[in-house]
Design a protein that fits this description.
Rossmann fold; globular; 7-stranded parallel beta sheet; 14 helices; alpha/beta
Length: 386
């Protein structure tokens, strides 16, 4: 049974070295949500008390609230309007560390600590390649985010990102010193996934050895560039029988279906919608294709590797090159290159890497290993867990 968010706990006599605050404001289905859903329980398992500061009607949403985790309602649906509540929380609870994510939330965290005059250490996270993420935003929003990172983030004790590419981009775009940014692998993979025998999905396309199934997953939007994947699939299908399935929902759904009709591959193309747990789909696919134009890392690419499914990926900024060790664990192709992608998919279907080799690439993103890295970045002890 879910616990209801409650008001602030009583103020401790002194600073609380065992308390961690997590301040996020998410869509409810993003990579940050998935990482938070793994990290928060893992921190609690280490014996820390974790407060999840909740912006109303925003994620992350935890399916179950573990012992040691408290939801704190900040009283508003708008992140900036939560500033007074965050100030009151810091004054009363005095957590050892507050971890926040996304620039607007990070700014509130910085202002709240300054106004609260709290001894809490701030660890700010950014999860995307910021220059590309802001490229389509308005001039004012770009200016605010660019300069807030360059001017305000030095007041935090630590800035963390998911990949070296994101760190380098942040330095180049905002002027924040590279030495102030630490790469910390996010918690993506539960340890038992590496050895799990996942059930075959209830779909007729799985388990047909004579017709390889290519899978992808993500929001149906321009950033994921599934149009290039469809064009590459049409090239590949002209040479051999195969099928393509993309898991996810989004505004590009009808455009992708229309493109499949135009390319003449609609009969072998499926969009089943959003699947909450895609691991079984990945495990029983013959190939996973990742075609983003830009990312912060690429969680689904890591998940596919963890279940031992061969992958191909665009060499987008940032993440895939690091995950795949420069192509060691799967080919990298130029963004938007459907011909190159088709060749890479054909070669990988013909000569897939062994499962045990593919899983090596996902090991740094195992939940407990990542939790150790987060605690180290927060300046806290990596306690034993149960």
């Amino acid at each position: 049974m879910k616990k209801r968010p409650r008001t602030l706990p009583r103020r401790p006599v002194g600073a609380d070295s065992t308390r961690i605050a997590c301040f996020f404001s998410t869509s409810g289905h993003s990579g940050v949500d998935r990482a938070a859903g793994h990290l928060i329980p893992a921190l609690a398992r280490r014996g820390y008390r974790v407060d999840l500061l909740k912006v109303r009607q925003h994620g992350p949403e935890l399916e179950e609230i573990p012992e040691g985790v408290t939801l704190i309602d900040l009283g508003s649906r708008h992140t900036l309007a939560c500033l007074p509540a965050v100030i009151r929380y810091l004054r009363r609870c005095r957590p050892a560390v507050m971890l926040s994510d996304k620039d607007k939330v990070n700014r509130v965290a910085l202002f709240a600590r300054a106004l609260a005059r709290a001894p809490t250490r701030l660890v700010l996270r950014s999860g995307t390649t910021i220059s590309l993420d802001l490229a389509t935003r308005g001039a004012l929003e770009r200016w605010i985010q660019r300069h807030s990172m360059g001017w305000l983030y030095p007041f935090a004790e630590q800035v963390i990102v998911a990949s070296s590419g994101v760190a380098d981009d942040m330095t180049d775009y905002t002027g924040l010193a590279r030495a102030r940014i630490r790469v910390v692998p996010p918690p993506v993979i539960p340890a038992n996934l590496f050895a799990s025998e996942l059930p075959r999905p209830d779909h007729p396309w799985f388990g047909q050895s004579d017709t390889p199934l290519i899978l992808s997953a993500g929001e149906l939007c321009s950033r994921k560039d599934f149009a290039t994947l469809l064009r590459a699939f049409a090239r590949l299908r002209a040479e051999r029988s195969c099928r393509l399935m993309i898991l996810g929902k989004g505004a590009a759904r009808e455009r992708l279906l229309a493109l499949a009709e135009t390319l003449g591959v609609a009969a072998d193309f499926a969009l089943p919608g959003y699947v909450r747990d895609a691991h079984a789909y990945m495990a029983h696919a013959d190939l996973f294709a990742f075609t983003s134009r830009w990312e912060g890392l690429g969680f689904v690419l890591i998940e596919a590797l963890a279940v031992g499914t061969p992958v191909v990926s665009t060499d987008c900024p940032s993440g895939p090159r690091e995950i795949l060790d420069g192509g060691r664990y799967g080919p990298l192709v130029a963004v938007g290159d459907d011909a190159g992608l088709a060749r890479a998919m054909l070669a990988t279907l013909d000569r897939p890497l062994p499962k045990r080799v593919l899983q090596q690439a996902a090991q740094p993103y195992e939940i407990e290993a990542s939790t150790d890295a987060y605690l180290n970045a927060m300046g806290l002890a990596a306690r034993a867990w149960s």
